[in-house]
Amino acid sequence: MKAKIQDTSASELAKQLRNMKTLLINKNAIILFSSLFFTLTSLQAQNERPMPKPGPVPTVNVGKPQKFTLPNGLKVMVVENHKLPRVSFSLSVDNNPHAEGAKKGVKNLTGELIGKGTKSVSRDVFNDEIDMMGARIDFSADGAYASGLSKYSVRILELMVKGCLEPNFTQDELDKEKIELIEGVKSEEKDVANVASRVEDVLAFGKNHPFGEYLTEQSINAVSLNDVIQYYNTYFVPENAYLVVIGDVKFADIKNRVEKAFENWTKASAPNATYNDPKNVQYTQINFVDMPNAVQSNVSFVNTVSLKMTDKDYFATIIADQIFGGDFGSYLNMNLREKHGWTYGAGSYVNGSKFVTKFTASAKVRNMVTDSAVVELLNELKRIRTEKVTDQVLRDAKAAYIGSFVMKIEKPETVARYALQTETQNLPSDFYENYIKSINAVTADEVMNAAKKYFLADNARIIVVGKGSEVIPALEKTKIPMFFFDKYGNPVEKPVTKKADVKVTVKSVIDNYVNAIGGIKAISEVKTVATFAKGNIQGQQLEFNTKASSKGTFAVDMVLPAMKMTVMKQRINDKVAYIEQQGKKKMIEGEDYKLMKSQAHPFFELYLIDNPQVTFTGIEKVNDVDAYVVKTPKSRLFFDVKTGLKIASENESKQGEQLIKQMIYFDDYKEVKGVKYPFKISIEAGMPIDLVVSDVKVNEGVADSDFQ
After folding, report:
1. Looking at residue 96, what DSSP letter applies?
2. Diameter of the chain by CA atoms?
């Protein structure tokens, strides 16, 4: 639980919104957006600049902590730093990973409920006092973090400890958190990256391993208030807990304060669960997950590794990862993104841990190049394992890594993490003081040897989540053994495309749809529709207000209420069409105008029946539902085989030379004046955007002037 949330800045959000490109209009007057693209131009420009000559190696002084241990087992480390009048407290409960079984989610829920007020202070009063001090306090099931001005250090510590040790667990708060957690799980089901991450962990570690478990609606609902209380009492204990204090404090003073604050934390230790280390596969293989509505494939390469920070090849391994996929200029990104233009970013990650972890490399690519991306990923893997990196590449990788390290060391959170890792991973006391020296000592031979050892070209899984009908035939030609799994990592048979009855046509699909939403008589009485919806992006609320008329006119306004600003508006009328963003107007002309005009109707599907460019293409799965597919020149529409309702649309747009596809889902249909409209719209636009319709007005509240 976060007592204070740091929202995306308004300027950054506006920048993101400016990158949204309007595409088509659906029949419910909800504007459709193509993918949200994050601007990488500046990064690319930085990459193209000549590298400056390296200066002298900076001296890093992490700060040696003064230590003491409380009778209950809490280990405390204090780093005095009087440069700024600030202080931070980082409490970490360092228990071994443990499986939650059928009640996966109890840890998440416990963490969310900690800090929701205390037994003696209500949540609102608690948060108001934090705000008044300009402080920050975050809580989780593994500890807490607090920071603020040092003049408030005593009270900040007291509030953090109260939140941790006097949680007020209530059924009402638990029910609210369950709903939010379940909604998050549901929204992730449509995202290929989230599905890929889940399957990756299930297959790499196993469902019964703590790192292979995943949340489900059933497991979340199985958690009771008593389960939360029991989990807290069992695992939120001081035996494996560490408190790191950094900032403008005096050791003797803070020692007394900490001893007093934590004196009532009862001594106890958590169960020490152990698990067998997972094994890698005997040979490299493709593990395919079919998501028929996916507009991109998520390709990930994964194998488990046992890499400790004390291992001799630790630094060589993280530099090998930096070169392979850890930086914008890495082998993987320069190949898949810069050379071929298949993705907006490709990368890899590996790090040291006390426990078995994984090496992974991934990218989201267009369906048509999925097989090529797999081949090129393996080519780059072979390269890092068999070819010595050049002196220049090695120097650049070291410089990038050291630069990042030096920047991070300025943050109290980083210093606290380093102090904690030194203790929990048994690192030498001068590990971070010698960090830069250790990086600079890595040789090209050591990089290659580390890659051979930890990046397992012959014993890895290539997990592909994508649209099977478009991707599988090409992947089979790679001759890499392929196995099939569902979205939860269960083995399944190779997906087979269903065939529709020969009697199904565009007309029959549209007729069923019309009947499902109310019938032709009810639809013909609709002259205007005004729709009002709200959504969130990066913590900022957005309003989508749209209007459409049977005259073939359309209007949409996208508003940031907090800024009292319209960030985008679109108009279509008998003469012109345009999109205006941040005061800049773009006119829509020619064929694009004709296309948008043809769909500027409350129920544009009626106009598809006699269009020779519109075809019925068969049956596909959309979120595990069989759907009839109707293809138009720039989109595909999906209608539930059983209900007849439109449940999704796939839309195309061009960004430069690339063809971009984007999915929109329609749900929660409700009747308004005899016609059903979807009151929930989910947009896959780089990040999932869920819109909730608050009101639909039929034949009221719309004037001709609205479309000018």
Report:
1. P
2. 85
